[in-house]
Amino acid sequence: MLKTGLLGAGRIGHVHANAISAHPGSTLVAVSDVVTANAEKLAAAYGAETRTSEAILQDPEIDAVLIATSTDTHSDLIEAATAAGKAVLCEKPVDLSLGRARACLARAEATGQPVMVGFNRRFDPGFAALKTACDAGEIGKAELLSITSFDPAPPPLAYVKVSGGLFRDMMIHDFDMAQWMMGGLPDSVSAVGTSVVDPAIGAEGDVDTAVATLRYADGRLAVIKNSRRAVYGYDQRLELLGSEGLLQAQNMLESNVVKSNAQGVTGAKPTYFFLERYMPAYRAEWAAFVDAVQSGGAMPVTLAEGVAALALAEAATLSSREGRPVAMRDILN
Amino acid sequence: MLKTGLLGAGRIGHVHANAISAHPGSTLVAVSDVVTANAEKLAAAYGAETRTSEAILQDPEIDAVLIATSTDTHSDLIEAATAAGKAVLCEKPVDLSLGRARACLARAEATGQPVMVGFNRRFDPGFAALKTACDAGEIGKAELLSITSFDPAPPPLAYVKVSGGLFRDMMIHDFDMAQWMMGGLPDSVSAVGTSVVDPAIGAEGDVDTAVATLRYADGRLAVIKNSRRAVYGYDQRLELLGSEGLLQAQNMLESNVVKSNAQGVTGAKPTYFFLERYMPAYRAEWAAFVDAVQSGGAMPVTLAEGVAALALAEAATLSSREGRPVAMRDILN
Amino acid sequence: MLKTGLLGAGRIGHVHANAISAHPGSTLVAVSDVVTANAEKLAAAYGAETRTSEAILQDPEIDAVLIATSTDTHSDLIEAATAAGKAVLCEKPVDLSLGRARACLARAEATGQPVMVGFNRRFDPGFAALKTACDAGEIGKAELLSITSFDPAPPPLAYVKVSGGLFRDMMIHDFDMAQWMMGGLPDSVSAVGTSVVDPAIGAEGDVDTAVATLRYADGRLAVIKNSRRAVYGYDQRLELLGSEGLLQAQNMLESNVVKSNAQGVTGAKPTYFFLERYMPAYRAEWAAFVDAVQSGGAMPVTLAEGVAALALAEAATLSSREGRPVAMRDILN
Amino acid sequence: MLKTGLLGAGRIGHVHANAISAHPGSTLVAVSDVVTANAEKLAAAYGAETRTSEAILQDPEIDAVLIATSTDTHSDLIEAATAAGKAVLCEKPVDLSLGRARACLARAEATGQPVMVGFNRRFDPGFAALKTACDAGEIGKAELLSITSFDPAPPPLAYVKVSGGLFRDMMIHDFDMAQWMMGGLPDSVSAVGTSVVDPAIGAEGDVDTAVATLRYADGRLAVIKNSRRAVYGYDQRLELLGSEGLLQAQNMLESNVVKSNAQGVTGAKPTYFFLERYMPAYRAEWAAFVDAVQSGGAMPVTLAEGVAALALAEAATLSSREGRPVAMRDILN
Q1: CATH number (domain holding residue B156)
Q2: Domain range enclosing D31
Q3: Tens digits of per-residue pLDDT, A184-235?
Q4: What's the gap in Å between the CA of A298 and the closest CA on chain C?
Q5: Inside any domain, residue A301
């Protein structure tokens, strides 16, 4: 039984608390939050205690912590938790600063503690099935990856201000999918970002619509499209062209009912947002973490991969800002 | 908290134990089974006690029982449980004998206890969404209902022998869907059943492929198709033609991945069988039962409806055997 | 070059004139119609002459006639044309009277002239591809055929009065599809017809919604659903369950554009009616006729098959009227 | 009746000859080809004469010419034909040299003769329906256009050598779609091209896989993906995200038959290549040209648009080669 402490009792904290409680091999012992009332509410719902983060990290009875706090605390908490001998599952992104994230990686690795980064989409049944088919050679050699990733509606401006920008906050998920599907980092990133959804986002210096093209050393390409607004729901599709075929992971729909009338043939919209679409993925993510911790096996998503995804976001941010392709070696050296 | 006893620890008993345990408003107290080892195994998995059925029914602490035993015990257990003051959720069919089922209905009703029959498909998200759309008038007046319901593979012959035949065992689900969608019973039933899947089924006097047509007093029609074998999975579709359009509930698929290659464009198969397809429905069914019991509201599927579905199965069995339409009034009088 | 005379210059006559003219191996020489102005208009459009039917049949230069006149003239014209040594393609149905059609068949066969009946759906690319796949054994042994065939809107009452009823006028197409797919006639037909679309149709003694179930000697089944009204267009689908899989021919759509918005994901409707849906089929039908005439090969749809389809319609009409299954041997003897 | 001369009797010349002959308002008078046997064969098939290009251009009876010769002759023939007072429909691209194309545009415009460029995809029913829906405001303001355009198999190397490269030969179609959908030219083009399909293509200095991103002055984006190989057929899809929804034009399939078996649910592949997919488009293109010439209306695709598409191809070629975004003003000035 993996005794788990949860740091952060916000919306995503609740998702994780649910997964921790539902898993037969883990139990939620304690929860902390900077807003004590939030922690208390979550603790009550799941039969856990409310503590400070420090108290959780110092409790020798606790085996693992799940970090679901605000991004600016991730690196510090990963370092503190690994230093305290905990296994760690940390929400993405590792940090908004690539330098800070790399320092965190070095310190965490020095402790030898297992750290996993919460790229939940790897555990989505559709994306996972596509990866399995690709790895099994079903489409021969992969050549061109395309990711469509649109949010249903832009976040509040207050969130935009602290998010680190679309590439670090939103496209970072797609950068991770790309490194997972294509196996490693590209040579260069070309990104174009604009603000056509909401001028207020542009006024904050951020973008709301973007395309990034990744070029790999062996000539393979990946292209990622992001928009902060798709009024029909959460549009999450991926397709991979290979030498022997095409694999596509389509959207999950709210229902399998279709209506035909004089206006056309209408099916359901995609599931609305990440909570609906990725709930099974969050559960599978937690299960994979528990399995890896208990078996001593490799982390399904390593901290190094979390840092690499951030490096891609850094490169895309720079590319979009300066209007030029950015070589990954210039980011990583 | 609805304290629940589970009678029957077979495959479907496990499904229900899972739903009872997962529901925040109910708890699984005790389980019984004619094979004690089965009861013990299930009880251990869910932290319940093992008892006899009689002990469960006599325990004043137990509020409700879920009957998941073999069909030939359903009527007796419904009568005993209602007499003991329990709320009851009983698996389909109520009985293989319509006369026995009607007697059971009379006795159960006399106790005033709530009894629900486990027609899980009413709680399938797709079918429920279709019903909601129909009730909202989205296709005008319903005129022609079509149900496709194919099992992936025939059951063992030993099961066929005691099943009561395809119409009472398998099509009874579709008869319930028809009465639910169309609102009540038809005037007459015409059924044609044959054995083309497995001659051994025919040799038992049963059929493995069948079509039933229901004619309602107002001229509406319903047609149900059953086959014991669809090698591609569990094919569960429903469509309803109305004066202003068509509603279709399509299959749920194993995955949303599509592969295109030189052989074609291939998507996933339907989910394999009822456990995969209807797991959400079993949970929703239990939740609806708990809600109704706790609120004192009407049962979502009444025992009378369970008996009516059996009457349709009786009519279809007779129609198929004698090669003639059967009037429902001749069955019910 | 097959010199062709066209008898009948109505809507379907224009369809055939187009096919005859477009085919490189045939030419439209002359056209007749009881309304001379209709014949003249069609003749002008296709560079043909206007003549009487008699003149066309007596012209030794004319190799073939296409009969697209009103149904009550079909038998007489088939007899006259074959007696005159013409190859004949006649629109469905052969006749409204089964006795008359059988007499016509005997007389036409006596002449040795080739006669084909215009069951255009056999030449629809989708249905033909499905038949090819079935014949190639792709789904093993066929067991259960389902045909959905809905018109977009009921015909005028004046047409209903002379149509011979839904089974002879509309479902006859589906009876032909059934005999083509299943290879021959069933043992018995059970049909249920009602009038729920338009009471005026019922008042004429006809039905507007119907289901027919065909039972074959070897236990295979076919079920046909008809409705005179599907407000979303011409719904023409067929599916065939076999021992190793399912084949489905889906609707053809007006466009391949899909729109996703806050209301759902909406694709195009089925093509509106038979002219839109089956235009390629009419061309392929004519090409198959020309090929068979010129090669001396077997007619792709024989007159005997046209009569057999009518026998099925006769049986279904009787079954629906009398509320009992009808044995085909009672119809054919 | 538009008397038409056809210059070029290759594969695409046959496509156009078919469209010219089938159109009720045009007739194919004469055809030329550098290989006389090719011209003779086509002329015989369509009942036309064989002449030299010069003779066709000098014939005062000929109203229009369709230029379907090799690309290196397009500019000269456009100039000669317009100077000779002909209406012109010229295959894409106008030229491989942007400078030469711009000179041709100036000279052709000076004659006042109507010139249309054969961007057939604008006349594809699906793309045209999508454009109509977009122009009608069905998805609000367009923001992000995505074009997927994959050939089934790479062309022969001999063709690659003279093609002008993927951007001028293949992606030029997509550049035209982009200017048509988005209304004009972008500010800048970023393209990444690689050779992963066939190293021999890379050895010729060309690419076989490419992604181009177009950035418009108002912030809108378009992304185009090309591959020379999609083993499942000709993959031609387009989607447009707007402020109020998404429009998608999906592939046309070889058939509407779907097979479900133990391996999955398999539908038909996309139609194989441009002849199959775009035959209706070629006919509609010719009809639009005839209409515009006869009515004196605006050309549906102007020569200036043909030159603009070439400018985009030029920019993309440069961008891919130099690894930097290219401003369109640097190309056009």
Answers
A1: 3.30.360.10
A2: 2-113
A3: 999 999 999 999 999 999 999 999 999 999 999 999 999 999 999 999 999 9
A4: 41
A5: no
Are C223 and C164 in contact by the 8 Å Cβ rule? The answer is no
Contact C94, C176 (CB under 8 A): no
Q: What CATH code is carried by the domain that includes residue A53?
A: 3.40.50.720
In contact, D42 and D6? CB cutoff 8 Å: yes
Is D126 within a domain? yes
Looking at the 3D structure of chain B, how many domains does it have?
2
Co-location of D132 and D203 in the same domain: yes
Identify whether the C-beta of residue A213 lies closer than 8 Å to the C-beta of residue A190. Answer: yes
Task: List all residues 6 or more positions away from D63 whose beta carbon is below 8 Å from its beta carbon.
Answer: D2, D3, D4, D86, D87, D293
User: pLDDT tens for residues C119-178?
Assistant: 999 999 999 999 999 999 999 999 999 999 999 999 999 999 999 999 999 999 999 999
Low-confidence winner among B56-60, B80-84, C300-304, D18-22 (lowest mean pLDDT) = D18-22
What's the pTM? 0.95
**CA-based nearest residue to A26, from A43, A5, A12:** A5
Token readout for C224 is 């046909």
Contact D208, D197 (CB under 8 A): yes
Spatial separation of the C-alpha atoms in residues C256 and D129, rounded to whole Å: 9
Q: Tokens 């509106």 — which residue?
A: C272
The answer on B272 and B130 residing in a single domain is: yes
Q: Which residues of D touch A141 (CB under 8 A)?
A: 196
Do D61 and D159 belong to one domain? no
Place of tokens 């598409």: D309
Question: Residues A171, A236: one domain?
Answer: yes
Count other Cβ atoms within 10 Å, centred on residue A112: 8
Q: Which pair of tokens denotes residue C332?
A: 């054919």
Distance (Å, whole) CA D77 – CA D88: 9
Subunits with 3+ C-beta pairs closer than 8 A to C: A, B, D
pLDDT at residue B24 in the model? 87
Which of C232, C261, C262 lies nearest to residue A265, judging by beta carbons?
Answer: C232
Last residue of a domain, one of D51, D82, D113: D113
Name the residue among C283, C297, C305, C332 with its Cα closest to residue C92. C305
Number of neighbours of residue D200 by Cβ within 10 angstroms: 13
Whole-Å CA distances, C87 to A25, C69, C119 = 80, 16, 16
- Each residue's pLDDT tens digit, C1-54: 999 999 999 999 999 999 999 898 999 999 999 999 999 999 999 999 999 999
Looking at chain B, which runs of residues are DSSP E strands? 2-7, 26-32, 49-50, 64-67, 87-91, 115-118, 142-150, 188-194, 209-215, 221-227, 235-242, 245-249, 257-261, 264-267, 326-327
Task: Indicate whether A34 and A103 sit together in one domain.
Answer: yes
- Whether residue D303 lies inside any domain: the answer is no
Place of tokens 């935009």: A160
Same domain for A74 and A35: yes
In a domain, D61, yes or no: yes
Helix (H/G/I), strand (E/B), else coil: D175: helix
My answer on whether D135 and D268 are in the same domain is yes
As a whole number of angstroms, the distance between CA B6 and CA B25 comes to: 16
Q: Using a CB-CB distance cutoff of 8 angstroms, which residues of chain D are in contact with residue C261?
A: 138-139, 244-246
Asked which of C89, C113, C137 is the last residue of a domain, the reply is C113
Contact criterion met (CB < 8 Å) for A262 and B250: no
Phi and psi at residue A92, in whole multiples of 5°? -80, 160
Task: With H, G, I as helix, E, B as strand and everything else as coil, classify residue C137.
Answer: coil
Could you tell me if A209 and A195 are in contact, meaning their C-beta atoms sit under 8 angstroms apart? yes
Give dist(CA C186, CA C182) in Å, integer: 9
Residues D258, C245: C-beta atoms closer than 8 Å: no
Q: Could C219 and B232 be called an inter-chain contact, meaning their C-beta atoms sit closer than 8 Å?
A: no
Neighbours of B71 (CB within 10 A): 18
B104 and B140 inside one domain: no
